[in-house]
Amino acid sequence: MGKVIPKVELLRHTYNAEEIVAMAAKLCYSDADIETIQKGVEKKDQGKYIKMLVEMGHMSVIEHVSFTFGIEGVSRSFLAQATRHRLASFSVKSQRYVGQVKAAGETFNYVIPPQIEALGKEAVKEYENQMKTLQQWYNGWVDRLGDAGESTYEDARFVLPNSAETKMILTMNARELRHFFSIRCCNRAQWEIRDVAWQMLKLCKESARELFENAGPGCVGGKCTEGSKSCMKQKEVRERAGKL
Ligand SMILES: Cc1cc2nc3c(=O)[nH]c(=O)nc-3n(C[C@H](O)[C@H](O)[C@H](O)COP(=O)(O)OP(=O)(O)OC[C@H]3O[C@@H](n4cnc5c(N)ncnc54)[C@H](O)[C@@H]3O)c2cc1C
Fold it and tell me: Among the CATH numbers 3.30.1360.170, 3.90.1170.50, 3.30.390.10, 3.90.226.10, which is that of 7-91+166-242?
């Protein structure tokens, strides 16, 4: 297939996520017992509880709910960055069990950085040819190593580049998501993880708006935290978040 682009789906999330968080908040800040809590919290009061928690910084309460995403069309470079988030859970397509041998003229799936695409057709052609060469190297090593499945692929994959596509299922709780959005939706983050983070933020807002109110880079809910490295585009960033 060759070129791919980042695609994110929200596969599942905690059922009634905002109500669970509001129930936990009600338990903390009222004398209600579990029987009362179990009856739930009315929709109109859920947002009030969540807002209070976030403003107080009582963020452990939003850890009770989690969101699971399917992500594809991303590079191994994205994988290296995403997996630095220690409170997330990952299942990643294996380069060891899933071989990448392709017929002549075909290549493994890969990501092209937009800045390389912006250089024009010739630059893209050169990049595509480089991917073809890497594919030939990969096929060559699989042949020489005896095409024995995982024990072959685990070594042949060493010649595959950072651009090679990976797919993953990723789960984060709402607290970790808000943290992830604060640093990865920021213009200081690298373009690919930033693109995925904004797609994730949109999906979160569509399914649990109150929980992700003001989520995004620091400048969305307050001041920019990037100091001298600030992009100085707070207005633009706030508008983008406001439209989600
Ligand atoms: C713009 C940008 C540039 C970067 N550049 C580099 C780079 O050059 N080199 C590099 O190596 N990395 C780099 N990183 C990655 C960065 O250092 C973090 O590893 C990554 O962003 C994960 O963030 P985190 O540790 O805050 O989050 P998570 O692992 O998601 O953890 C969430 C929060 O939990 C708490 N926490 C988690 N684990 C611990 C712990 N062991 N002890 C105490 N508190 C903990 C912290 O409060 C943390 O913020 C960069 C990230 C960004 C956004």
Answer: 3.30.1360.170
Q: How far is the CA of 91 from the centre of ligand 1 (A)?
A: 20
> Whose Cα sits closest to atom 23 in ligand 1?
85
Q: For a substitution probing ligand 1, which of 179, 187, 229 has the most ligand atoms within 8 Å of its CB? A: 179
Q: What is the pLDDT of residues 17-75, one digit of tens each?
A: 999 999 999 999 999 999 999 998 999 899 999 999 988 999 999 999 999 999 999 99
Ligand 1 centroid distance, CA of 58 (Å):
21
Dist CA 241 CA 238 (whole Å): 5
Cα gap 132→170, rounded to integer Å: 30
d(CA 194, CA 192): 5
